[in-house]
Write a structure and sequence with these properties.
Strand order of the largest sheet: 1-2-6-5-4-3-7-8-9
Order of helices and strands: HHHHHHEHEHEHEHEHEHEHEHEHHEHHEE
Helix content: 40-55%
Shape: globular
Structural class: alpha/beta
Number of strands: 12
Strand content: 5-15%
Radius of gyration: 22 Å
Mean pLDDT: 88
Length: 372
């Protein structure tokens, strides 16, 4: 049986099929394996599939073999997740356009992926003032010492300062790259890159050996916002990548904070704009910021010893019980339930409906399910 992850990879290789259309395919058909075998007419029922896109799918799909493609890709890119993997970053999976392939290098901490340890992004200009550098170091240090993982983009300026300060404070940091995870950009951050591999992760949606490209960096900002629970903008001109990240954060329902500055200071213009649009102030008392960040709801880890007894559950058929066991105490998307049970997608869909009618589980947006 070909793994569902192989179909995420195969679909991503078809020109014109981006993360948004992939998400729609998965939601429409339940699994991308089912979508791969769908007819042209069936694919045309999915929003966004116009005539030209359908023609590309028909032409290119016949030349791709998901299992072989997946095996070859693993040989060339040893570490990556697809949305079909249980340890794919959970918060990123909830966004409208999760990368079909997320590559990584470094030290994985599963609690970060499961959203049980909070990730906070710090972004800003490549040409910060002394004021911006000072506050970046103070905030990153405070976050690291209080158990937060600092996320940024390893660019010059604010990004670099945030990564360095977090590691100096003994914390973890994650760099989201606009290149392959094996390509260092800018070159002056070579030593920083090596340090991050021992104190966190570098991640990217681009395969190994992908060089820097100006179109990659705005796109990678959605990943910075997607994996983080909050975004802190330190200094940013009106036209900057940091504001793109803040826009994604608002779209994803993340909290946005901005450092106020002088009204005639160009690097502060973007922050002042964010504050005028409702972003929260980063003020002198960092304890207040830490308290606010700590109040963001976490996805709690449920210990088996504290799990409630299932005495009131009715007798279920083996298939229904298998689906219930897969969901356990976590919220799971449909494709992961199919993957964990090994039951055909159609049967899983039927079982979920029965369990929902019995009041044993409920459906959440994005075809995700949880026990009632």
């Amino acid at each position: 049986m070909v793994e569902e992850g192989a179909y995420w990879l195969a679909w991503s290789q078809i020109s014109g099929i981006g993360p948004v259309l992939l998400r729609r395919l998965q939601q429409h058909f339940g699994t991308l394996a089912t979508a791969w075998n769908a007819t042209k007419v069936q694919l045309g029922e999915v929003e966004g599939f116009g005539f030209q896109t359908l023609e590309k799918v028909v032409q290119q799909r016949s030349r791709l073999y998901p299992e072989q493609l997946f095996t070859k890709h693993q040989q060339e890119n040893s570490h990556f997740w697809t949305p079909a993997d249980a340890d794919y970053p959970r918060l990123l999976l909830e966004t409208p356009s999760p990368p079909p392939i997320l590559y990584y290098r470094g030290e994985v901490e599963l609690q970060e992926n499961l959203a049980q340890k909070p990730l906070v992004a710090i972004v800003g200009t490549r040409r910060p003032s002394e004021y911006g550098i000072r506050w970046t170091r103070q905030i990153s240090t405070a976050l690291a010492k209080n158990g937060f993982t600092v996320v940024s983009g390893m660019a010059e300026g604010i990004d670099t300062e945030s990564h360095i300060a977090a590691m100096k404070a003994g914390g973890r940091t994650i760099a989201v790259l606009g290149t392959g995870v094996d390509v260092i950009y800018p070159q002056k951050n070579r030593d920083l890159y090596k340090q991050i591999l021992t104190a966190g992760l570098v991640v990217s949606e681009y395969p190994t050996k992908t060089p820097p490209d100006r179109t990659h960096f705005p796109r990678r900002n959605r990943i910075i916002a997607g994996i983080s629970r909050a975004i802190l903008v330190i200094e940013a001109p009106l036209k900057s990548g940091a504001l793109i990240t803040a826009t994604y954060a608002n779209e994803f329902g993340r909290d946005v904070y901005a450092l106020p500055g002088r009204v005639d200071d160009l690097p502060s213009q973007g922050c002042l704009k964010l504050l005028s649009q409702g972003a929260s102030f980063i003020l002198k008392e960092l304890d207040e910021l830490l308290t606010m960040l700590g109040a963001i709801p976490q996805i709690d880890e449920v210990e088996a010893s504290t799990a409630p007894e299932q005495l009131s559950l009715p007798d279920l058929s083996p298939e229904l019980q298998q689906v219930m066991n897969a969901i356990a105490f976590d919220v799971l998307p449909f494709d992961l339930i199919v993957q964990q049970t090994g039951i055909p997608a159609g049967s899983v869909s039927s079982a979920l409906l029965q369990l929902e009618l019995m009041g044993l589980l409920s459906q959440l947006p994005g075809m995700r399910y949880q026990k009632s």
